[in-house]
C-alpha cells in the first residue's frame, strides 16, 4: 500500500511510508526527502565493512550489532517536526536490537545508537559538517567518516587530498577534534578497541 503525504509525518509514520518509487528517503521537518543512489564502490565498501564488523563483534564478544542503511531518528526541539538520517552503517547496542526483534516495528535507531559510520560521497559537506553536529547533539558515542575517494574539503583531509578516515568521539556531550587515519595507520576506535584494520585495508573494501 502506497501512502500519500497530507501532513508532516512522525518518525514511525515515515518508516511505514512508501511512495512506490523504490528510492531511499530521509525525513526533514516531517517531509520525506529522496536520496541519491550510491555508486558501486560506495556500496561495496559499506557492505564489506558492515559484514567485517559484525563478525568482529561476535568474535570479540562485543555488545554491538552492525547494520547497513538504517534510519536514525534525530534529536528535535519541542514543536519541531521530526527528522532522520539514513546512515550507511549503524552500530546498535545488542540489547536494543534484541528489543526490536521482539516487536513488529521497522528496524531503525529509535534511540541514539553507540556508533554511526558514513562513507563519503559527492555531498561530502553533509558528512563533515551537518552530520557531525547532528550526531553530536544526538549523543552518538563514536562517529566514523570513511572518505575512501578523498572527496572531502582540504580543511578536513589536507592538501594534497588523500583517502582519510576521521573518527569523532563524544566527551562530556561534545565531540573531541576528529582523529585522522590514513594509509597504514591502525584505526583506533573506542567501540572496537581490538580492531586491527588499517585505514588502507578499509579503503580496499571498495575495490
TrEMBL record:
Domain Putative restriction endonuclease as annotated: residue spans: 11-199
Key words of the record: Endonuclease, Hydrolase, Nuclease
Listed Gene3D superfamilies: tt1808, chain A (3.90.1570.10)
Claim: Nuclease is one of the keywords in the record: yes
Keyword Hydrolase: yes
GO MF annotation, one: endonuclease activity
Protein name: Uma2 family endonuclease
Amino acid at each position: 500500500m502506497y501512502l500519500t503525504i497530507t501532513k508532516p509525518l512522525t518518525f514511525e509514520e515515515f518508516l511505514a511510508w512508501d511512495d512506490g518509487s523504490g528510492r531511499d528517503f530521509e525525513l526533514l521537518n516531517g517531509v520525506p526527502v529522496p536520496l541519491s543512489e550510491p555508486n558501486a564502490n560506495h556500496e561495496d565498501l559499506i557492505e564489506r565493512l558492515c559484514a567485517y564488523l559484525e563478525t568482529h563483534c561476535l568474535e570479540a564478544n562485543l555488545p554491538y550489532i552492525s547494520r547497513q542503511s538504517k534510519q536514525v531518528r534525530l534529536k528535535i526541539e519541542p514543536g519541531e517536526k521530526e527528522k532522520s538520517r539514513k546512515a550507511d552503517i549503524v552500530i546498535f547496542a545488542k540489547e536494543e536490537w534484541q528489543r526490536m526483534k521482539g516487536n513488529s516495528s521497522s528496524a531503525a535507531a529509535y534511540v541514539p545508537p553507540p556508533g554511526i559510520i558514513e562513507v563519503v560521497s559527492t555531498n561530502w559537506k553533509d558528512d563533515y559538517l551537518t552530520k557531525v553536529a547532528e550526531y553530536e547533539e544526538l549523543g552518538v558515542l563514536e562517529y566514523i567518516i570513511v572518505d575512501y575517494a578523498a572527496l572531502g574539503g582540504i580543511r578536513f583531509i589536507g592538501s594534497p587530498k588523500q583517502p582519510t578516515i576521521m573518527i569523532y568521539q563524544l566527551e562530556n556531550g561534545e565531540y573531541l577534534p576528529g582523529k585522522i587515519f590514513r594509509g597504514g595507520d591502525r584505526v583506533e576506535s573506542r567501540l572496537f578497541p581490538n580492531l586491527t584494520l588499517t585505514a588502507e585495508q578499509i579503503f580496499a573494501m571498495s575495490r
